[in-house]
Amino acid sequence: MQTPEPKIANALWALLQNSAFVALWSAQILSQLADKILLTLVVGLAALPGFLTDRWISSDWRDSLIMVAFTAPAILFGTLAGIYVDQHSKRQTLLVCNFIQGFLLLAIAFLPPSFIFLLVVTFAVSTLAQAFAPAELAILPLIVPKSLLITANALFTVTIMGALIVGFAIGSPLLRWVSELLPQLPVLARVGTVGGMYLLANGALAIVPDHEKLKPRDLTVGGIWHNLQEGVRYVRGDRTVRGAMVQLVLLYAILAALIRLSTNLTELLGQNREDFGFFLAATGAGLALGAFLLAQLGDRLSHLPLSLIGFSGIAIALLLFALITELWVGLAICIFLGLHGALIVVPMMALIQHHTPETMRGKVFGLLNNAQNIALSLSVVMVGLLLQITASLMEARLGFQVVLLLCSSMVLGFGLWTWRLTQGEETP
Fold this sequence. Notes:
Elements: H1 4-16, H2 19-46, H3 59-87, H4 90-110, H5 115-143, H6 149-181, H7 186-205, H8 221-237, H9 239-268, H10 277-301, H11 306-321, H12 327-355, H13 361-393, H14 396-421
Helix pairs in contact: 2-3, 2-5, 2-6, 2-7, 3-5, 3-13, 4-5, 4-7, 6-7, 6-10, 9-12, 9-13, 9-14, 10-12, 11-12, 11-14, 13-14
């Protein structure tokens, strides 16, 4: 008889005895936290008087441009970053990415304040993050025995979700606190804190051994194009996989819209604009809680149309945002939204894994990643445009409520349509 609990405990203990893994994991924690706090940092800096020199850009468009600069590199360079990582030392890639990210952020404090330069730095730091992510996952099998890979990947996944929750929750108060410690140099205090996290991660990475043997690969443009076409043909031909992917893409678009809407919501609630991270942290907590509950009750809930329930709950949450006047109510709604988001992401990911042949999974998940990142940017731009239009036609709060009503209706309509593509197939 199998005894999962002792095996898990032994695996975790074995990982903690592996100094190379602990070093890599420590670097991941620092880098993930820095990545999440980065968005709060840039939004806060853009609102400082010194960075308002480009007055032809309105405040609403500033937030949208920042978020596009934050997400666009994943669309443009995600595939190329993976190819680069395959042909270069993973450890060196991690070290170089962290060093340049830290250096670029520190440069903000020593150059004349400019919103355009802030956008360039955000874009560059996010671009380097595209190489960091595949490099840390690719180096994992080089330092962890095959028998511990599942546990190691699970720990990495928990860290990513934890960084999402903690990073957005502590970002604003942490940056405000360091600014108060150095009131004469508030910009240096802020960028030094986030940039320092990237540089500290390099201190941990120095312990990771570099025993990788690189093999030359002939990755021509023709070969990459052929693989891309093969993946697209498979997705087009499998209705179930296509439906699951569309639902996941729609969910990511919703989460991106929430990021954009939360900046306006904080202002309407009388809070500091930088405090929008609290809403994102609450949503992440809801996602984590929902995933945990599904792991415990999945079999009992498998007969239910989980993704349809998820989209319906998200649509209700967006409507409720239009009515709130207290911060704690908004946080509770975010947790509610995250819980229903888990009803989409968990079964749809399992559905894709079950229906996709092993030889096609890399291509399918690569296409999914690109589609999700495209949805992130388009959603941010669309919501920004809607907010701009409604702000010019009506009072700010009423315009915000109209945008929420439109988003809620679209979520419910698209959710129902995409659910029909996988109806009867939600449980693998």
